[in-house]
Design goal:
By secondary structure, this protein is of the alpha/beta class. It has two domains: 2-243 and 406-471, FAD/NAD(P)-binding domain; 246-400, Flavocytochrome C3, Chain A, domain 1 (Alpha-Beta Complex). The protein has helices at 16-31, 72-79, 86-105, 130-143, 198-205, 225-232, 284-298, 309-312, 315-318, 333-340, 344-357, 446-471, and strands at residues 2-12, 38-41, 110-117, 120-127, 148-151, 155-161, 167-173, 179-189, 213-214, 237-238, 244-250, 267-270, 303-308, 328-330, 392-404, 407-408, 415-417, 423-429. Strands 1, 2, 5, 6, 7, 8, 17 and 18 form an eight-stranded mixed β-sheet that branches. Strands 9, 11, 12, 13, 14 and 15 form a six-stranded mixed β-sheet that branches. Strands 3-4 form a two-stranded antiparallel sheet. Helix 1 (16-31) runs parallel beside helix 4 (130-143), helix 1 (16-31) runs parallel beside helix 12 and helix 3 (86-105) crosses helix 12 (446-471). The radius of gyration is 24 Å and the shape is elongated. Bound molecules: flavin-adenine dinucleotide. Residues 12-18, 41-44, 49-53, 55-59, 131, 155-156, 190-192, 215-216, 218-219, 221-223, 225, 257, 402-403, 431-432, 444-448, 450 line the site of flavin-adenine dinucleotide (FAD).
């Protein structure tokens, strides 16, 4: 096996986390008067670089001033039942404004999306051009440092460690298919979860994982390698290993990310044309992953949104059906069932039963309107508008995986911890492959988490290197 030159830093992964780490290291070194030698490893070819970050719209759960929504930390403690690392969440909250500045300073422009729910403003920021803009701007910034280079079609295979257990590089398989060692004083693992690895998905998430679609092309490159490589040398884990963030997508298209968010405004039936889920129990942001998981885990990956012209007369609601294929449309429920491949008698019975059970409250998508059903199972607790305004519309949907919850355990400085709780010298991790979430995911926090702890990892590794150099 050949050996490459020595790097100050080897970063595994070229998404938001990896590029934030590489750029923050390079700039800190430059501020200290040295040009750093950095290798960023990317499994994909250059046109496909950037992992999931490249494909996301990158909604961020922050206000106009780039402050994380103050509900986040309490929400994480509540839904995780105290399992989510509180110190990590608090550091995340306090560092998010610096991440906003970091991204803006590197040319990423943001737009603010404002909405209200229950009278409370729901503010999200989104980069113009989505995550692709983050990848491109950070990669351009990195290219300004002559000692830094992105190595495409180069995949990390295992960590190299010294006899004392210090991580000192990465064994990689390059474009020629051969192995070589890239030595580095520090290594940042930023190569995503195991959403692109059906073997690990089956092992941790369970039966029928092979039926999960992948939400976007970049997601498939994330095969759990960072988690595997670090646990091989004794790293601790965190996050729920059988947990995942999934979303319902239109099964008729090959477009990336064809997400149908608006289950709240429809009734959702399974392959037997029966409702199986309270579509109005929680608002969209708090339930879109839960219903997707249910469709995969218990409904044979088959479900259908059923709705009518009343909803289609409200473009702000249908804008949530983000697919490039028009819905199936019919003048009768029976015809809709036929076109969707459902039993017409069964769908008609489900719709009739639902319509007869809804109360007369006013429909209001901006709050929990109490327009609910009674006497049917499962109920629909809000937004139960009868489906009786033809024409009728339907979408066939299935769950697509976005990312996995389980990952490595790090401290708040992004250092990977051993099972005994000690930082493993030379090893950092950031992004999806750091396990944080349990039971539920709060939308708009994953890209932020990746860039925030990537930035922290790069800065810490450089500060550590500077101390070592001074001490020599
Ligand atoms: C369609 C879609 C929409 C999303 N919407 C949102 C949203 O609105 N808000 C939000 O916060 N999050 C969203 N997410 C999730 C979010 O995009 C990711 O969780 C986040 O970008 C992960 O960043 P990362 O840097 O950890 O991983 P990634 O961006 O996935 O980068 C991982 C990198 O590692 C590389 N890699 C993997 N294994 C190896 C290896 N062995 N060797 C070398 N390289 C390797 C990959 O090729 C890739 O470059 C969405 C995801 C998708 C797919």
């Amino acid at each position: 096996m050949s050996s490459d030159s020595n790097y100050d830093l080897v970063v595994v992964g070229c998404g938001g986390a990896g590029l934030s780490a590489a750029v923050s290291y390079a700039e800190a070194a430059k501020a200290n008067g040295r040009e750093a030698n950095i290798a960023v490893l990317e499994r994909a070819a250059e046109p496909d670089r950037g992992g999931s970050t490249r494909w996301t719209m990158a909604g961020m759960y922050v206000d106009q001033n780039f402050k994380l929504n103050p509900r986040f930390v309490g929400w994480m403690q509540e839904v995780s039942k105290g399992l989510a690392d509180l110190d990590y969440c608090l550091t995340f909250e306090s560092e998010v404004p610096n991440t906003g500045k970091f991204l803006r300073d590197h040319g990423v422009e943001f737009m603010v999306i404002e909405d209200t729910f229950e009278g409370e403003p729901q503010v999200y920021n989104m980069p113009n051009g989505g995550g692709h803009s983050i990848v491109n701007h950070l990669a351009d910034s990195l290219a300004e440092h002559p000692g830094a280079k992105i190595h495409y079609e180069t995949e990390a295979v295992r960590l190299s460690i010294s006899d004392e257990g210090r991580v000192n590089g990465v064994v990689v398989r390059g474009p020629d298919g051969l192995l070589k060692t890239m030595h580095g004083d520090a290594v940042v693992l930023a190569c995503g979860g195991f959403e692109g690895n059906y073997e690990m998905l089956t092992q941790y998430c369970g039966k029928d994982a092979v039926d999960l679609r992948v939400l976007a092309p970049g997601t498939q490159y994330n095969k759990g390698d960072g988690i595997r490589m670090a646990t091989e040398i004794g790293a601790a884990t965190s996050g729920q290993f059988d947990g995942m963030h999934a979303e319902l997508v239109d099964i008729r298209t090959d477009r990336a990310d064809p997400v149908l968010y608006g289950h709240n405004w429809t009734i959702v039936v399974n392959g037997e044309a029966k409702r199986f889920y309270d579509e109005g129990a929680k608002n969209m942001g708090d339930s879109f992953e839960l219903i997707a998981y249910e469709v995969w885990a218990n409904q044979n990956q088959q479900a259908f949104f059923i709705t009518d012209q009343f909803i289609f007369d409200q473009p702000e609601l249908t804008a949530r059906f983000d697919t490039d294929i028009p819905p199936v449309k019919a003048d009768t429920i029976r015809d809709l069932a036929n076109q969707l491949g459902l039993d017409p008698d069964a769908l008609e019975a489900t719709v009739n039963e639902f319509n007869a059970s809804a109360n007369d409250n006013e429909f209001d998508p901006k709050r929990y309107d109490g327009k609910s059903t009674s006497g049917i199972e499962p109920p629909k607790s809000n937004w139960a508008f009868p489906v009786n305004h033809p024409p009728y519309y339907g979408y066939p949907v299935a769950a697509a995986i976005c990312f996995t919850y389980g990952g490595l355990k790090t401290d708040t400085e992004a250092r990977v911890l051993s099972k005994g709780g000690k930082p493993i010298p030379g090893l950092y991790a950031a992004g999806e492959l750091v396990g944080l979430y349990y039971h539920e995911y709060k939308g708009g926090t994953s890209v932020l988490k990746a860039c925030t702890f990537g930035r922290i990892a790069g800065a810490h590794a450089e500060a550590n290197a500077a101390v070592t150099v001074t001490a020599r």
